[in-house]
Amino acid sequence: MIGFVKKQPFLFIVSLSSVFFYLSFAYDLQRTDFPKFIMLYGALFFFFYKIVQISKNNLAFLTILTVLFRLLFLLATPNLSQDYFRFIWDGRMIAEGLNPYLSLPQDFIRSGTFPVLQAEELYRGMGELNGSHYTVYPPLNQFIFWLSILFSNSIFGAIAWMRFVIILADLGTLYFGKKILERLQLPAHHIFWFLLNPFIIIEMTGNLHFEGVMIFLLLWGFYLILSGKWKTAAVLIGFSASVKLISLIFIPMFFRYLGWKKFLVFGSLAGLAFGLLYLPFLSDELLKFYFTSLHMYFNNFEFNASIFYIIRWVGYQTTGYNIIRTFGLVMPFIVLGIVLAIAFFRKNKTFQQVVVSMLLAISVYYFTATVVHPWYVAVLLILSIFTRFRYPLIWTLVVMLSYFAYSNPDFKENFWLLSVEYVLVYGWLFYELYFFRKVRIPN
User: Fold this and answer.
1) Each residue's pLDDT tens digit, 74-114
2) Helix 83-95 vs helix 119-131: angle between axes, to the nearest 10 degrees?
C-alpha cells in the first residue's frame, strides 16, 4: 500500500476520495438537496474519468474498485428512487400466491385489505401515483422481486438481496464485456467506462434499477452470437427483454447479420423465451391491464424529454393545449418505422455494425420519448463501448441535471438545465457523426 501511494499519489487520492464521496452519496444525501447532489456527482465523475484514464493498463486494480464502490452501498436505502417499494409489493404478492399484474395496490388499501406484510408502509413508500397503476415489470424481474422476499421478510433485507443480484449481474457484465472487446480487438479497459461510471454505480447498485441485469443477459447473448451459438443467444436476449422490455428493440437488428432464414429461427426463439416466462401469470385480464398501464405511460407522463418538449411547445402555440395524447398515438409508429428501416436497410453485416444500429435505434426512441428517466441511458452507454460513439458517456454526465425536478415540492423541471443536457448530448453526437476523425476518443 505504501509503495502504491508513493508511485501513484494522485490515483490514490482520487480513489480514496471516491470512497468518501460514495459514502456521502449513499448515506447522507436527500434527493431534494440538488446542490449537494450535483456537486458530489460531478466530483465522482471527474474521479472516475481520471481513474480509468490513469489505470487503463491495470485491469486488476480497476476490477477491485468496481467491486469496492458497489459494496459501499450494501447497507444503504435507495435515496433517488422509490420504485423499490413497488418491487417489494409485487414480490410479496407472488409469495402470497397472488398475481401482481391483476390488481392495484390502492384498491387493497382503500378497502382495508392488506394482502402483504407491511402493506400500508409499502403503499406510502411507492406513492399514490405508482399505487394507482398496474405493474408493468416483466416476469423475470418479478422473479427477482419474489426471490428477494423468500430470503428476507424485511424491507431492508429485500433491498439487500436485490442489490446483491444487481452486483452479481455487473460482474457478469465485466466478464462478458471484456471478452467481447477482446473478440472485437478493442481495448479491454473500455468496459470500465461503463462499470466504474458513477452513473451506473448510483443508478443500478444504489437505486436498484434492473437495467444492469438486462445488460448482463444482453452481453451474454452477444458473446454467444460472436461464438456462433446464435440459438442460445436468442433465448438469452428473450430473457433480457423479460427483465426490461426495451431489449425487444434489438431483435430486428440481427436480420441482415444472420440472414432471413436464421433470423426467423432467432426471432422465434427470442419471442418464445420472452413469452413463456409470462405463462405463470397468464389470465384473460393480463394483456388488458398491462397495456392499460403502458398506454398511460406513453400518453400521460412527461419527464426529461427533448424533441417532445419542443413539439409540445409548438402545440401550445397552435392549439392552446398539451398535445401529448396525439403525440403518444403517432410517434410510436414513426419510431417503429425508423427502427425497422435501420434493421432492414442499413448495412449490418458485421457485429459492430449491428451494435451501431442498436445504438442508433434506441437513441431515436429515447430522443423522441416523453419520459427519459436517467437510468434509461445505461443501455446506450454499454452499447457505445463497442463502437466509436461516445455521446452516451457525455449523457451519463449531464442526465443527472434532470434530478433538479425532485428538489421542489411540485416536481417542476428546469428547462434551462434540460437545455444544457440536450445541447451537449446532441452537439457531441453531431460532432461525432460529421467530424469523427477529429474526435478524441478515450483510450
Assistant:
1) 999 999 999 999 999 999 999 999 999 999 999 999 988 88
2) 120
Q: What is the pLDDT of residues 276-293, one digit of tens each?
A: 999 999 888 888 887 777
Cell of 103: 390488481
Question: Crossing angle for the helix pair 324-345 and 286-300, nearest 10 degrees?
Answer: 100
* 122-143 b/e (C-beta count within 10 Å ≥ 16 → b): bbebbeeebbebbbbbbbbbbb
Question: CA distances (Å), 100 to each of 136, 142, 168, in order?
Answer: 9, 9, 26
Residue tagged 447522507 (cell numbers): 28
Helix 230-241, helix 260-276: angle, nearest 10: 40
The band of 1, judged by pLDDT with boundaries at 50, 70 and 90, is: low
Amino acid letter, residue 438: K
Q: How far apart are CA 245 and CA 365, in angstroms?
A: 13
Q: What is the amino acid identity at position 118?
A: Q
pTM strictly above 0.90 = yes
Helix (H), strand (E), coil (C) string for 294-339 = HHHHHHHCCECCCHHHHHHHHHHHHHCCCCHHHHHHHHHHHHHHHH
CA distance 217 to 211: 10
User: Cell numbers 442508433 correspond to what residue?
Assistant: 360
Compute and round to an integer the Cα radius of gyration of the chain. 22
Q: Is 56 helix (H, G, I), strand (E, B) or coil?
A: coil
Residue 129: pLDDT over 90: no
Grid cell 452537439 — which residue? 427
Task: Look at residue 437 and tell me whether its pLDDT is greater than 70.
Answer: no
- 435, three cell numbers: 467530424
Q: What is the 3-state secondary structure (H, E, C) of 140-187?
A: HHHHHHHHHHHHCCCHHHHHHHHHHHHHHHHHHHHHHHHHHHHHCCCC
User: What is each CA distance from 189 to 55, 223, 426, in whole angstroms?
Assistant: 9, 17, 26
